Amino acid sequence: SIVESYRWSPFVPITLDSSMLTVLLLLSKYRLRNVPVIEPDKPVIRNFITQTGVVKGLQQCKGRDWFDYISALPLSDLGLPFMSIDEVILFP
Fold first, then answer.
1. What percentage of residues in the chain have a pLDDT greater than 90?
2. pLDDT mean across residues, the chain
3. N- to C-terminal Cα distance for the chain?
4. In which element (H, E) is residue 5 found?
5. Rounded distance, CA 19 to CA 43, Å?
6. What is the reported pTM?
7. Burial profile 50-88: b = 16 or more Cβ within 10 angstroms, e = fewer
8. What secondary structure, in 3-state letters, does 52-73 show?
9. What is the per-residue pLDDT across 42-67, written as a single tens digit (0 to 9) for each?
């Protein structure tokens, strides 16, 4: 059933020591709704991290100094890579 659920998207698992940045990058790059969490060298899925779970986790960070500081910055100050307009893929 796992293979069937990932038929149209890549199976890109993370491990328990993966960073939240890795999770965010995988969710956005591959447009996944969830990321499986595995133990290295074991054929077992421990859990799934979902988009909803990530958003709920970020909501709980409100009020913390580091989060409030980052969330107040404009996107241009975060050093994120931006694509030029000719690199953007539009769907009809």
1. 1
2. 79
3. 32
4. helix 2-5
5. 21
6. 0.61
7. ebeebeeeeeeeeeeeeeeeeeeeeeeeeeeeeeeeeee
8. HHHHHHHHCCCCCHHHHHHHHC
9. 878 889 999 888 888 888 888 889 88
**Any residues with CB less than 8 A from the CB of 20 and at least 6 apart, and which?**
54, 57
| 16 contacts 41 by C-beta, under 8 angstroms | no
Rounded to 5 degrees, what are φ and ψ at 66? Answer: -65, -40
* Tokens of residue 54, six digits: 């990530």
Strands (E), 1-92: 14-15, 34-38, 45-50
What are the angstrom distances between the C-alpha of 11 and each of 6, 18, 27, 51, 92?
Answer: 6, 16, 12, 16, 27
